[in-house]
Amino acid sequence: MASSSLHLLLTLLTISSSATATSRHHRIPAHNYKAALNKAAHNYKDALTKSILFYEGQRSGKLPPNQRMTWRRSSGLSDGSAMNVDLVGGYYDAGDNVKFGFPMAFTATMLSWSVLEFGGIMKSELGNARTAIRWATDYLLKATAQPDTIYVQVGDANKDHVCWERPEDMDTQRTVLKIDRNNPGSDVAAETAAALASASLVFRKCDPSYSKILRKRAIRVFAFADKYRGCYSDGLKSYVCPFYCSYSGYQDELLWGAAWLHKATRSSTYLNFIEANGRTLGVDENDNTFGWDNKHAGAKILLSKAFLVQKVQSLHDYKDHADSFICSLVQGTSSCQTQYTPGGLLFKMHENNLQYVTSTTFLLVTYAKFLTKSHKVVNCGGVIVTPKRLRAMAKKQVDYLLGDNPMKMSFMVGYGPKFPRRVHHRGSSLPSMSAHPAKISCGSGFSFMHSESPNPNILVGAVVGGPDQHDSYNDERSDYFQAEPATYTNAPLVGTLAYLAHSARQI
User: How many CB atoms lie within 10 A of CB 503?
Assistant: First the structure.
């Protein structure tokens, strides 16, 4: 699992250390960002193709004839039967065989946002990106088919984790978990609404009927999230914690969901909601971590567009909120709260740090786009930060991920000459069905897990958790902090890579 019980502790340690991070770590002079532009560009187009292909390796359900990750086969074909519902499909979140609705919904939202901002320059990959989104939203429509009910998980992670087996061989209990009026989950519900709403915009022109279904469902799901408030991990703690506990609460998701409903419906209902509830939902909080758990930074950037580009004057404060987030990342300013490794990588957490790198770089290039359109800059305590600098910051992080790092190693599987070979991923680490048709039982798979041999199946495009704070990576399958990929790590990277593939020379 790409998240663990250390998540909360590490988050608290990160917050407590943020005030002194810039004094303890080497600051790069502000003018040095220009040096990032002079390095030879990576093959961002190839990386983009692979970052989307990765999702075919995470598919659950009945695989289509055009499945490109051919070592995978259909799996989870009876999911939902324990509750007499159809929950076949969707994605396994990371390296195990559980379907968690919370990170899956965030994955769909970020894939959709990637397409909405940069789909016009994705060229041949736009269709594949839409397919990746639809694989998630088709499942989310099933999960939300009953009013005031959302099926939020299939599989028991605690039981799944005592096995090391292919998805095609699963024999662990496919426990089905749900939220409803009596056991609310505003966090996962509002994130699901955001996923459906953002995807409705993706399909608005190419599939209007599907778009309408998504938008209508998003409205209903958000109403449920708002009316029956609570954290889903309060009622489902033994199943979702420590894996995907809602550590940040549900307020950030309500703001995030309302922002996407406002964008998708253009209804004053959601604008009024944001205006009335923004502060109580935490928009003033000075958090600078954006990911599957905390959406505040993303909501600030998204809502800033309504003011900067669409001139919604009532949201003028969101430019200031977004600027504060940006300034917390910029080295050499008094407001920097972010730690960087000696090699220059943004470092937030010991577990799956690259998820925060990819989500942050997406916000950087996206906000740069909004600033450029509105002819604005960011003022960080007297230091003027231009859109060009934000793009250079993002490029430097992506280049590190793709190989410009002390290890001289790409952290995207299948990209470049040197990349992780022992990924913490069951299907990738075990022989494929074609190579080993016989069933590999729950316990016997651990002989492969503990093997020093490279994974027999290449999970092309997967971005692993990444190096530690000292830029070190051990490529050990058992180290899920560093070696496990996740769907929500790739999702925002898709948008950033699309931008870089098209515009690197213009940065």
Answer: 16
- Which residues, at least 6 apart from 186, have a Cβ–Cβ distance to it below 8 Å? 225, 226, 228, 229, 230, 231, 232, 250, 253, 254
**Is the per-residue pLDDT at 310 higher than 60?**
yes
Name the E strands within 164-291: 176-180
Enumerate the domain spans of the chain.
6-506
3 state DSSP class of 264? helix
Confidence band, pLDDT 50/70/90 cuts, at residue 41: confident
Helix residue ranges, H only, 328-442: 354-374, 387-402, 426-429
Does 284 qualify as catalytic in the annotation? no
Q: Catalytic site residue 476?
A: no
CB-CB contact of 388 with 427 (8 Å): no
Neighbour count for residue 455 (Cβ, 10 Å): 20
What are 463's two structure tokens? 């971005």
Q: What does the buried/exposed string (b/e) look like for 159-172 if buried means 16 or more CB atoms within 10 Å of the residue's CB? A: ebeebbbbbbbbeb
Asked if 191 and 109 count as a contact pair (C-beta separation under 8 A), the reply is: yes
Mark whether 42 is an active-site residue: no
CATH of domain 6-506: 1.50.10.10
**For residues 358 and 490, is the Cβ–Cβ distance under 8 A?**
yes
Give me the catalytic one of 351, 424, 425, 471. Answer: 424
* Alpha carbon distance 182, 456 (integer Å): 46
Dihedral angle sign, alpha carbons of residues 46, 47, 51, 54? positive
- Residue pair 130/186 in contact (Cβ under 8 Å)? The answer is no
The conformation of residue 497, written as its DSSP 8-state character, comes to H
- DSSP secondary structure code for residue 92 in this structure: -
Distance CA 465, CA 447 (A): 23
Give me the residue label for tokens 């519900």: 189
Q: Which one from 180, 475, 476, 479 is the annotated catalytic residue?
A: 475
In percent, how much of the chain has pLDDT > 70? 91
Closest CA to 322 of 345, 344, 306, 338: 306
pLDDT at 421 over 90: yes
Q: Roughly how many angstroms between the first and final C-alpha of the chain, as a whole number?
A: 36
